[in-house]
Amino acid sequence: MPADMLAQGIKAGRISADQYEANFADLHAPLDDHEALVAADRCYFCYDAPCVTACPTDIDIPLFIRQIATGTSDAAAKTILSQNIMGGMCARVCPTETLCEEVCVREVAEGKPVLIGQLQRYATDGLMAKGVHPFERAGSTGKRVAVVGAGPAGLACAHRLAMQGHDVVVMDARAKAGGLNEFGIAAYKSTDEFAAREVDWLLQIGGIEIKPGVALGSDVSLAELQDDYDAVFLGMGLGGVNGLGVEGDDKNGIADAVDFIADLRQASDLSSVPVGRDVVVIGGGMTAVDAAVQAKLLGALNVTLVYRRSRVRMNASVYEQDLAASKGVRIITNASPKGVHGNGAVREVEFEYTDDDLKPTGQTVRIAADQVFRAIGQSLVGEGLPTLEGRKIKVSASGATSVKGVWAGGDCASGGDDLTVTAVAEGRDAAMDIHAHLMGGAS
Amino acid sequence: MADLTTDFLGIKSPNPFWLASAPPTDKEYNVRRAFEAGWGGVVWKTLGSEGPPVVNVNGPRYGAIYGADRRLLGLNNIELITDRDLFTNLEEIKRVKADYPDRAVIVSLMVPCEEEAWKAILPLVEDTGADGIELNFGCPHGMSERGMGAAVGQVPEYIEMVTRWCKQYYSKPVIVKLTPNITDVRKPAAAAHRGGADAVSLINTINSITSVNLDTMSPEPSIDGKGTHGGYCGPAVKPIAMSMVSEIARAQDTAGMPISGIGGITTWRDAAEFMALGCGNVQVCTAAMTYGFKIVQEMISGLSQWMDEKGYTDTSEFVGMAVPNTTDWQYLNLNYIAKAKIDEDLCISCGRCYAACEDTSHQAIAMSDDRVFSVIDEECVACNLCVNVCPVENCITMEQMPVGAIDPRTDRVVEPEYANWTTHPNNPSATAAE
C-alpha cells in the first residue's frame, strides 16, 4: 500500500497517475460494433413493450434496437433523440436497472436484460461523433422564452422550444451550462467532457442563447423575466443542502457531497483533489454513492457510507450499492448521526443505531473520520416563487405552475423522481405546453 | 430524409412496403391497423368465387424452423384462401380503400380456370375501387389439389389464358403471382407477359414439411396425427426468391416487366436487395406475422437512411441496378484472383475456419501451437468458406491479388484481361482459339 494512502488528514495525490486514470475511466466501456449487434439481437421487439412504459421519456426502445440490428444506428439515434434530446447522457447515468432494463422481458425471464442503456449509448455516440444534429428549427415565431437553469430540464425545454421556432435564453447561476450533468454525477459516468460536448451538440439546433452566471433572485427576478419574455420555464434544480442537525456539524472537514462531486468534476487534474484518509458519507441516495465511490477512487483508505434506514429503503439502486461495495465502500445502515467529535477538525462521527422507523435503540458507534460528506438531501432555495407543494414548485402534468406564463420542471418541481431522464421529460413536455399556449394565443 | 413514395404500375403508395396476400390482410380490422402502422399498401387475402367459402382446418396451420435464440427463420402455412364470405370482403375492401386513398389496395383472386368464373368476379372487384388485382397462381397447398393456385401456376398456357381474361374484363393493373414450385420460373413469367400482365409478383410459398414429430411419426403441423405439406416462407426463402426474381429480370422475354418482390423480406436491407434485382416494390408477410405491423417503421427509416447516404432521392433510381451485374457462371472473370486474409487482431482463435478448410476444403489454413491461424496462399483458392463460418465480422476477408503478382498456388502471373470459361482452353467448346 502506498504510504500516501495511510497519511492522515485531507490530502491530494494519494495514488499514482496511472491509478487515477484507471479509477476514473469509463464505468462501462462502449460497445463495439460486434458487441452492439450481439446485444441488439437479444431484443424480442416486444409488443407494447414494458421497457418503453418504464422509460420516463417514452423512447421507442424496441424500434431503436431493431434499427441498430439492421445496421442503421443513425436512425436508431434519431428514434432516441426525438424523445430524449439528452439520450447520450441518459444512456450513461440512467439507473436502467430500475427503469427499462428492470422490466425487460428477458430480465424478468432470465435475469439478463437486453443492454438497453449501452445500446442507446452506442447509437447516440455514433451520431454525435459524426457531428450530426438531426433536427431542424421550424420557422421563427417571434416569441421569446426565458429558461432558468441550464441543466437537463432547462436544456431539454430550450431545445424543444427552439425546434418549434421560438427564441430561447437560458440563464444559469453557474459559470458553465450542463447543471448536474456537468457538476453532479460521478466522473466515471461522464468521461471525456461528455456533458459539455453534449451541450454544444444540443445547441446546434440554433435559437438558444446561454447566459452563464445569472442567478434567479440575485441577478434577475421572476417578475422581470415575466415582463421581458413571452413565457418562463423554471428548471434551476435544488440549490440548498440539508444539514445534519447535530452538534459539531460545522467542524472542519465536513462538507456537502454535491460540492465535493462538483469540484472533482471540474478539476483539470484529479491528483489535485484532496480527500481524507477516513471518509464518512452520510446519506443513502445516488449523491451519497457517487461521493463515497469517488472518495475511494481518489485513494481514501476507509470510506463508510452510513444511512439511517435499511438497505431496501435506500434511494440508490441495488446496482449502485453493489458498485459501491465492489469499490471497497463499507455500507452501514440503520444508523443516525448523533454527534461529531474532534477539536476544530472532525476526528470521529458518532451514530446511534435505529430501527426502520428511526426509533433509537440506545446503542451507538463511533467511526473515525477526517472527512465527512453530507448527502441527506437537497432543498429548493429562492423567494417569490410560484406556489409550492411540499418543498418543491407545484406543477400540473404539463409543468404549468400557479403563476400564469410560468412553467417549471426537473428537480425543483413536484412530481417524478429526481433523475436526469425525468428532468428531460418534464422540460420537453413543458416546452410543448408552452408552445401550445404561445401559438394558441392563450397563456 | 429520402422520399419513399413509389409508383408501381401507376399505383402510388407512400412507401414500397406492401403487405402480401396472406393471413395479415384477411379483413378490414387488420388492414386498417396495418395502414395506421405505416404500410404503403396491401394485397388483400385471396378471394374465391361467390358461394359457400372454403373451410380451414381447426388444428394448427403453421409450423416453423428456428435459428439461435429461437429466432423464427422459416414458417410453413397450410391456411387456404379467405374463408369469409365474398361480399363481406368486397364491402370491407371498398370501405378501406375509400378511407385510405393514398395507400395501395390490391385484391388477390383465385377462382376456377373457367372464363365465366373470372367474368363473374372481376366486375365485383372493379366496383370496390381497389387499385388492381393479383392472380394467385401460387398457393401450393389445398387449393392446388382442386385445380387452382399452384396447379394453374405450373401450366404456363393456363396462366396466359387467365391473364388474358382478366385484362379483358378488368380495367386496372393485373399482377400475376408466381409459384416457385416449378423448374424454370421464366416460363410462367413469360406466359403472364404474353397474356398481357402488367407485372409479376414472386415468390409464393414453397412446398415444405418443417418437421416430423418423432413420437407420433406425424409431420408438423399435425392434425389428428396426420400432416401435409404447406407453403414455406420467411427469411429462409429469401435467397431462393431473389434468384428467381433475377432470372425474370434478366430474361430476354420478360426483361423490363415490373416485378413485385416477395420472399422473406424482414428488414430494409432485404427490401433494397430485392429492388436492386429489379423489383419496383416489395411485399412482406412473415416479418409482420413474427413481429407485428410496427416492423415497417424500421423498414421505412432504414431504407430512407440508406437512400440518403447513397444520394438516391427516389426509389426508382436504384431499382434494377444489380441486374446488369447478375450473369451466368460462364461469364465470370477467371482472371480475378483473391486470397483469404485473417486479421489476427480480430481473431478470437475459435478455429472454425481451420476445421472448415482442413476437413472440407483446400487445407489452406495453418494453425500454430498457440492457436494462431494464418492462410497458406499456396493452397488458398479463395473459396470464401472461412469467411462464411467465421463468427467475427470482417476478421477474414478476401483480398484481390494485384495484376502482375504471381499466384503462389499456380505460379502464374495475375493477368489484367477479363477472361471467362467461354474462351478458356480447358473448355472443349471454347469459342476463341489460343
UniProtKB/TrEMBL annotation, chain B:
Molecular function GO terms recorded: dihydropyrimidine dehydrogenase (NAD+) activity; iron-sulfur cluster binding; metal ion binding
Family membership: Belongs to the dihydropyrimidine dehydrogenase family.
Name by which UniProt lists this protein: dihydrouracil dehydrogenase (NAD(+))
UniProt key word Endoplasmic reticulum: no
Domain 4Fe-4S ferredoxin-type: from-to ranges: 338-370, 371-401
EC top class, as a word: oxidoreductase
Assembly information from the UniProt record: Heterotetramer of 2 PreA and 2 PreT subunits.
Signal peptide region: none
Recorded superkingdom: Bacteria
Species the sequence originates in: Planktotalea frisia
Biological role stated in the UniProt entry: Involved in pyrimidine base degradation. Catalyzes physiologically the reduction of uracil to 5,6-dihydrouracil (DHU) by using NADH as a specific cosubstrate. It also catalyzes the reverse reaction and the reduction of thymine to 5,6-dihydrothymine (DHT).
Keywords: Iron, Iron-sulfur, Metal-binding, Oxidoreductase
Catalytic activity: 5,6-dihydrouracil + NAD(+) = uracil + NADH + H(+); 5,6-dihydrothymine + NAD(+) = thymine + NADH + H(+)
Pfam family membership, one: DHO_dh
Entry keyword Oxidoreductase: yes
EC number: 1.3.1.1
Any single GO CC term annotated in Swiss-Prot or TrEMBL for this entry: cytoplasm
